[in-house]
Amino acid sequence: MLTFMASDSEEEVCDERTSLMSAESPPPRCCQEARQGLEDGENAAQWRSQDSEEDLDDADRYVCSGVPGQPLGLEEELTLKYGAKHVIMLFVPVTLCMIVVVATIKSVRFYTEKNGQLIYTPFTEDTPSVGQRLLNSVLNTLIMISVIVAMTIFLVVLYKYRCYKFIHGWLIMSSLMLLFLFTYIYLGEVLKTYNVAMDYPTLFLTVWNFGAVGMVCIHWKGPLVLQQAYLIMISALMALVFIKYLPEWSAWVILGAISVYDLVAVLCPKGPLRMLVETAQERNEPIFPALIYSSAMVWTVGMAKLDPSSQGALQLPYDPEMEDSYDSFGEPSYPEVFEPPLPGSPEGELEEEEERGVKLGLGDFIFYSVLVGKAAATGSGDWNTTLACFVAILIGLCLTLLLLAVFKKALPALPISITFGLIFYFSTDNLVRPFMDTLASHQLYI
Amino acid sequence: MTAAVFFGCAFIAFGPALALYIFTIATEPLRVIFLIIGAFFWLVSLLFSSLFWFMARTITDNKDGPIQKYLLILGVLVSVLIQEMFRFMYYKLLKKASEGLKSINPDETAPSMRLLAYVSGLGFGIMSGVFAFVNTLSDSLGPGTVGIHGDSPQFFLNSAFMTLVIILLHVFWGIIFFDGCEKKKWSALLVVLLTHLLVSALTFISSHYGINLVSTYIIMVLMGIWAFFVAGGSCRSLKFCLLCQDKDFLLFNQRSR
């Protein structure tokens, strides 16, 4: 808490952590000193979830077709048949998150005002020369990425030594901070923007209800739709914090570096995330639901893979199947399509067809939204840039899911989308915008 | 410039496209994906057109004067060419994807080329309309007086109707274009390209709103009738549809042909 108080803004510390945490858990954790550990724990948890997914993948591959006993030949057909549905199941939440972020950026001026920087990006960008600014942003990125890598490794270590209580506590603290503190700030700014007065008792009641229901839905049980909505909200809140506190050039360089890190960490044999996944697979443990967005449609309580050792936070979609590994940011996301739990498990009432779902890490949500939000914030009131980035990210997600269907293993969800997003942001901002503006001023249509 | 103008123009320009999306595309995930890929192809074509215009401008060193106007006209015409080229490329991609899907699971009915033509046309149209109009729309929410410097006060309405006609035209062009590619009728492609050039060229005489808007709508109706017959409609099916006598003739019930 001391760290938190000492910083300029509460988000400062949170940002960094949050980003790491976000993938795993809501950012609020960041603000705390214990965040460090938490983040690592979270990262570990994330990886764990990814691991579990991979475990499940192997285990469930044989039941891929969703119906026990079906010949494997149908596996491909069902994969394809469900492939498009899975893509849409991810398009919708990603789109919603981006809409929330863009709507807030365009209307609430608080999130586009420069009000200090995170301690993870100490170098300022207010330098007179371009070279100095570029150097500062690269240094900021290096610091941020090294913190992320350190936390990831710490998380792997935590996970290896089975510090589950620590990880859970961290996750819960993070969600608390996100759901209560950040929501309170967000609500305050929105009310200020629209000049609506709200008395403290009403505010307390609103925030308390929102936060308490959120904690229950995310960490325990709740309707799937509500849980998804809360995860989208906290991803949006986290992304807004990043948009506010990351300086311009640093944000773009960080986005690029994070996708590279994601790629490396997920696919390299010695990558931390991959090691985490393998460890989780060995232990056959489930993933923390608080860090992953799950689109599983139906789930049953009597899942065979419930792990009593992993505390509390078993959520609904804690179904071992279909977990998409995605880590919060930087972590590779493993969008994976898993099949429902093994047929042998006591879920006679399982509707296997409905069990298919896809999971995407909250970190991916956050970074997609950061990219689109930054495009909206800096694009001089231009909507074309925002829309171009939005379409580019969706196409990247589509391609990633296609690769997932082809390779059937954990894949990072950030690289392709972020690359497309960055390419389209810079080209639209510099090439397309002047062309469209000139056309519009002469009222020409192409 | 009030909320009424904003909502009115937004619904004029995007209402039909939204209705088409909700009733024919939103229910099928595969169609949504092809729509977004179509929008992406249009976006890439716009990128190349802007690149061309940018390079042409840097070559002429950004001098002011009539040369800028000529460059702009050239940019518009080249952009139309590039858009149609990308439509052709999207056709090729869809053809390959269709074959791929068919080879993997021959039992499943993959979307027919006609349906993909419609979806791709709509994707192109929505992206084109949105890029053309959304900045104007967002400006209409702010303060200002339209036409205070002597321009027409119907600026927003005109832009909205123009956007609507462009979206619909893209849908019809998509259908005609893909059909021409399928049946190797290259004249159809040429007609699509020429009408697209004509519609863009008509906007050059934007001082006469009535003329270019009305003629564009006439072209749209003609293209619509041609696309209807190309897509397999006939006077009989139209009669059945209007009299609600045979629901198999409704568009979204069509299976692959």
Automatic annotation (TrEMBL), chain A:
GO MF term (any one): aspartic endopeptidase activity, intramembrane cleaving
Cellular localisation: Endoplasmic reticulum membrane; Golgi apparatus membrane
InterPro entries assigned to the protein according to its UniProt record, in alphabetical order: Pept_A22A_PS2, Peptidase_A22A, Preselin/SPP, Presenilin_C
Pfam families in the cross-refs: Presenilin (PF01080)
Region feature Disordered, mapped onto this chain: 1-57
GO biological process: amyloid-beta formation; calcium ion homeostasis; intracellular signal transduction; membrane protein ectodomain proteolysis; Notch signaling pathway; protein processing
This protein's name: Presenilin
From TrEMBL, chain B:
Family statement: Belongs to the APH-1 family.
CC terms in the record's Gene Ontology section: gamma-secretase complex
Membrane topology: Multi-pass membrane protein
InterPro entries: Aph-1
Function, in words: Potential subunit of the gamma-secretase complex, an endoprotease complex that catalyzes the intramembrane cleavage of integral proteins such as Notch receptors.
Alphabetical keyword list: Membrane, Notch signaling pathway, Transmembrane, Transmembrane helix
Subunit structure: Component of the gamma-secretase complex.
Record field: transmembrane: 6-25, 32-55, 67-86, 115-135, 155-176, 188-205, 211-231
Keyword Hydrolase among UniProt keywords: no
Protein name: Gamma-secretase subunit APH-1
Entry's localization field: Membrane
Biological-process GO terms, alphabetical: Notch signaling pathway; protein processing
